[in-house]
Amino acid sequence: MGIEYIHADPADIVQKVSFYGFDIAISVTVLHYAINRAHLEAFFSSTYRLVKPSGLFAALVMNPGFMRFGQRIYNRRYRREPDGRLYVDFFDETGMRCSALYSDFTWADYQESANRTGWKDLTWCPIKVTDEGRNRLGSFWNGFEEDCPYAGFRVMKPPG
């Protein structure tokens, strides 16, 4: 299919990619794994270098406004710890399977990282449940749109 898989991080991805000038870059639940604001900015910076002028970067991240910490919702429980980190416990039918550690970035952290690396027009995009999804899973989605654990955004690289 012509797909090239690359294992990289923001520090070395530019050297590992064989093509520059992507129309769009997409990050799905990756940016909140950055270990601090400098690391977050490195994600924005390296992506900026790989996307062509007028290209887009779209991302799905942990929602900085999420409020339902401590509750088990969907197949997860989100915990905010005193150390300022977010822990997410993942469950299946047998119980908790694993946990993940996220950074607790704010709306401003994302906006400032985008701005400092050259991206323009950061726009937050609400996450919506489709009618098909609501029909298939019904009450599973209760409260999702009102207090979604994830948020989406897009930014644009200025033309030329």
Structure description:
The chain has 160 residues and is an alpha+beta fold. The protein has a single domain (20-156), classed as Vaccinia Virus protein VP39 (Rossmann fold, 3-Layer(aba) Sandwich), CATH 3.40.50. Helix content is 22%, strand content 35%. It contains 4 helices and 8 strands; from the N terminus they run αβαβββββαβαβ. A 4-stranded mixed sheet has the order 1-2-8-7. It has a 4-stranded antiparallel sheet with strand order 3-4-5-6, with no helix packed on it. Strand 1 (22-28), helix 2 (37-50) and strand 2 (51-62) form a beta-alpha-beta unit. Helix 2 (37-50) crosses helix 3. It starts with 12 loop residues before the first helix and ends with a strand.
Observed structural traits:
Rossmann fold, 22% helix, 8 strands, 4 helices, 160 residues, single chain, alpha+beta
- Provide the residue-averaged pLDDT: 92
Give the count of structural domains.
1
Radius of gyration: 17 Å
Q: Sheet bearing the most strands, described?
A: 4 strands, mixed
Helix residue percentage: 10-25%
Helix and strand layout, with pairings?
Blueprint: H1 13-16, E1 22-28, H2 37-50, E2 51-62, E3 72-73, E4 76-80, E5 85-92, E6 95-103, H3 107-116, E7 120-125, H4 131-137, E8 150-156
Parallel strand pairs: 1-2
Antiparallel strand pairs: 2-8, 3-4, 4-5, 5-6, 7-8
Helix pairs in contact: 2-3
